[in-house]
Amino acid sequence: MPIPFAKLQGAGNDYIAIDGRDIDRDWAKLSVEMSKPAFGVGSDGIVVVQRSKKAQVRMRVFNPDGSEAEMSGNGIRLFAKFVLDRKLALPGADGGLVIETGGGVRTLWPMMQGGKMVSARVSMGPPTFVPKEIPVDGAAFGNPDRVYDSPLKAGDRTLKVTCLAIGNPHCVVFPDGPVEKFPLLDLGPLVERHKAFPNRINFEIVNVLDRSHIRARIFERGAGETMSSGTGSTAAMIASRIHGFVGDEVKVLLPGGTLKITWPGKGAAFLEGPAVEVFTGLWPD
């Protein structure tokens, strides 16, 4: 039978949402097929609604190459809009929607207009900088405790990288020049699949504009460069914060739009951004 779906975007990061609670499919294969821009719907992946024993609902995220991601900051907002607009689940007493992800249980607080979700604030959980928890091969950087401004050889360049996980793994670099001129498409695949990162890694390059604004480009694991990324933006802000470049609340300027990240230096980080439904359709079986 054809599969109903919705195409959504948040700051230019687009996902296809599917209610998979009563559907048995090879989601990895379907993500590859649907994500193709010329032969499919075109997207940065799919988010699938499933039942959960830990939360109100479960989200699974699949990249365009078929790999499964632990978490997506933009994807979870788009997932929540799909769920709430269709009343597949409703917010709890505190106004939050509790969602099980591969990176842990997350709570999202929607902003509604006319019965539809237009934006949301998401608890992204606390970051970890412990290499084995990211995971990163700390021995490759000569430090089993933290990868902070550590040298990483990628092609003919040596990058100073800071690594962390915020539901999924990230590698952040602060280049000397503008991010627009950084050869991200050339170096992104080399960093993503570097032997120091056993599960591959998301790669962010960041310019600090002032204490409350940064500019970033993001190369997502399994997807390539994207217009934006929620976890990538959160990682970029956290890396900027631990370097002392920014304060507790930062707007991240991305090719697809702007996301706001709040993190006081410890505990959970919070992400705020829009969620827009672009169109719906039926995928032929």
Number of helices: 4
The CATH topology label of the largest domain is Diaminopimelate Epimerase, Chain A, domain 1
Strand content: 35-45%
Look at the structure and name the CATH superfamily of the largest domain.
Diaminopimelate Epimerase, Chain A, domain 1
Helix content: 10-25%
Number of domains: 2
Structural class: alpha+beta
Number of strands: 18
- CATH architecture type of the largest domain: Roll
Rough shape? globular
Provide mean pLDDT, rounded.
96
- What pattern of helices and strands is seen along the backbone? EEHEEEHEEEEEEHEEEHEEEE
Major beta-sheet overview: 18 strands, mixed
Ranges where pLDDT stays below 50 over 5 or more residues in a row are none
Rounded to the nearest angstrom, the distance between the terminal CA atoms is 5 Å
Q: CATH first level of the largest domain: which class?
A: Alpha Beta
Rg computed from alpha carbons, rounded to a whole number of angstroms: 18 Å
Defining key terms:
15% helix, 2 domains, 18 strands, Diaminopimelate Epimerase, Chain A, domain 1, alpha+beta, 285 residues, 18-stranded mixed beta sheet
